[in-house]
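User: Fold this; tokens only.

Assistant: Input:
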Amino acid sequence: MKTNTLAPELPVKKSDAANKKEAILKINTLTPELLHKMNAYWRAANYLSVGQIYLFDNPLLKEPLKLSHVKPLVVGHWGTTPGQNFIYVHLNRVIKKYDLDMFYIAGPGHGGPAIVGNVYLEGTWSDIYPNVTQDEAGMKELFKQFSFPGGISSHVAPTTPGSIHEGGELGYSLSHAFGAAFDNPDLVVACIIGDGEAETASLATAWHSNKFLNPISDGAVLPILHLNGYKISNPTVLARIEHEELEQFLRGCGWTPHFVEGDEPEKMHQLLAATLESAVEDIRQIQSNARTKNDTTRPRWPMIVLRSPKGWTGPKIVDGLQIEGTFRAHQVPLLVDTEHPDHVKQLESWMKSYKAEELFDENGRLMPELAELAPKGDRRMGANPHANGGILLRDLRMPDFHDHAVKVPSPGAITGQDTLVLGNFLRDVAKLNQDQRNFRVFGPDETLSNLLGAVFEVTNRQWDAREVKNDEFLAPAGRVLDSMLSENQCEGWLEGYLLTGRHGLFNSYEAFIRIVDSMFSQHAKWLKVCLELPWRRKISSLNYLLASHVWQQDHNGFTHQDPGFLDHVINKKADIVRVYLPPDANCLLSVFDHCLRSRNYVNVVVAGKHALPQWLTMDAAVVHCTEGIGIWQWASNDQGSEPDVVMACCGDTPTLEILAAVSILRKHLPDLKIRVINVVDLMKLQSSSEHPHGLNETDYDSLFTKDKHVIFGFHGYPWLVHRLTYRRTNRNLHVRGYKEEGTITTAFDMRVQNDLDRFHLVQDVIDRIPHLGSKGAYLKQHMQDKLIEHKNYIDQHGQDLPEIRNWKWSDTQ
């Protein structure tokens, strides 16, 4: 069979350091006794892994294995597991030798048996789950729970002590690792990356995270790329390119790769032991040099490439087909069921090859000399406090947001840029927490664009790559991470930062937050499960600030218009998600103060950056945001009577247009009774039986009435409001929002094209209320005329009508 080869290259002269490292690798790092013990520990982890996948009973094989001892449905992933077991036992050794503060991130998909088994061996699993004891009965429970109804998943999950990473979806391990390392100078994060995982866009970009790690104030990330060659049924790219190409790729990404390759256990133990020591020494040297000499030069951090067979130590041949070292080892390498009864003996032979009688005593306890290999207390990777970040979480020092209040003499009297005001508040948050080093702002090159630039008055962007003249706000250390144009990395970094006990926010253009839809989902699911685990401490909320939103498209086109993240978010558990659309700057300040103080939520805040009317004083804003929804009495005229129509709004731009429509109606139809309702907390619309913030039926009906027409101006897709209110009594709900119209045009024309403008809203009211008679007919005609006038004006002048640009609220306009 022909194979592709690279063109010949000129020989590369090795450096003295490289020659020295090669010399170190030739030394047998492990004594024969330690090698024997570590190999035995590895066998124990492999035995437990196979047992988890297959066994329902007879955990120590004290009697001949029967089909009844095997789970009726065998599911799991074996292929990556023995390699991860191999890594884990070696990490244990260097933790003990160097007294490392280290935890483990399992990137390869569905390697749960390895991590669960190792956490069990070190004793952490039994500490957290006392029913899974370190004996035969506990081993049986350990095996049964895996991929079994009411048990645990086949991948690493919140139920796994020592984990901050949900391994079900691939690609985010390295981003999470760096997020954990930021501001943790003593921490080393061992990040195991599957070669299939390495093909994802997120992971491929995450290699460049090393340009943002400060060796003085941050910890270290030790990536271990596990090349076992295959995905479910295909080879992996990085395993099939030549060694030189892989090394050049990793060096090109700024790493110093160390290769550990082979399939003979004894040699591989010695190789990995020596390589890990070399990597740890490199990390210590880099950090020592940086910290003693204040040297901020970007280092070439070490990483390891471990090439081992897929399904190492598993069945070699099954039914005439090669298993070990092929894609067939990826999941269950040996089918054991009623259709394959002869495989029972093969499974038994496989499990007995690990010689469990040498590893566990008669009662199923790990032999004491092997148990000694694991670190103790919090040094166990399963018990590391950083992997249960709420243990380390400290409250933010918060400025008084009232100090940043916009002075509003009367509703709509002045204009303001909401996110610009918020930026000053965030500057003070960053300043107050500088010495605690537990707050960061994340975003894909949008902090300035979203008008949060005030933070640069007190901090910089963290950036450890080369700087040139005219760069702004770049420094080796900073509280802002926005210099990488990747929503995935910002999200992953922030998640890792939060999960290890810190605080932060992610600011993004609204349309492009959709890039992390799936990452948000995984984090929300993580939080949901954590709430069910009493030992998992609450962490700081994941806070999104979505600006440059759908209604602010002065120069951006159709691609920049997508408010659908809100639709995606509300599908998650009500215990987790919160959505806020403050109508002005004072409300935004109140909302964000609340969000930064909250725990275990995903808070989505949508706010504008363009100048818009400011409606509420700070005192009024605090009350309004605390209630989340309310009647704006100053804009309403139905006091003492039933309204003829309810005008509701949610979001800064819909609020502007609804109030402009109300002012027109009150001027031309003064007898019309109008109630104006503003919604800040979107989930107030949902029933209290579905969401803890939801209004009960009585309160909802008292606001929206049971039968009056409700004209609702909404920031996003109209059907989202219908989804939230479908169980309410009042069916006369008419929502106006974004309906996929508009491109390069004026701000007001965006609203016109989507029927959210004041002229369309007034017509909508007239159409719904037949008793308005001729006054209504004349006003409707006037609104149609205004729409034509608007279109002609923008076509000629390229900007909105003066009466639109200069509009001010008046109830008698």
